[in-house]
Amino acid sequence: MTDYHGACKSGSRIENLVWKKLKGFGYTIITTQKDVAQYHGFQLTKGGNVKRKDVPFCREYLEGRRKLPIPPNKGYDKFKENFLSDGFSPELNVLFEIKGGLIDGTTDEKIMADIGKIKDGVYGDYHLFYIFQGIMEENQWTHKFIFDLNELKESGNIYAQTVTVLMFSELTKETLEEICPLT
Question: Are 42 and 50 within 8 A, CB to CB?
Answer without folding.
Answer: yes
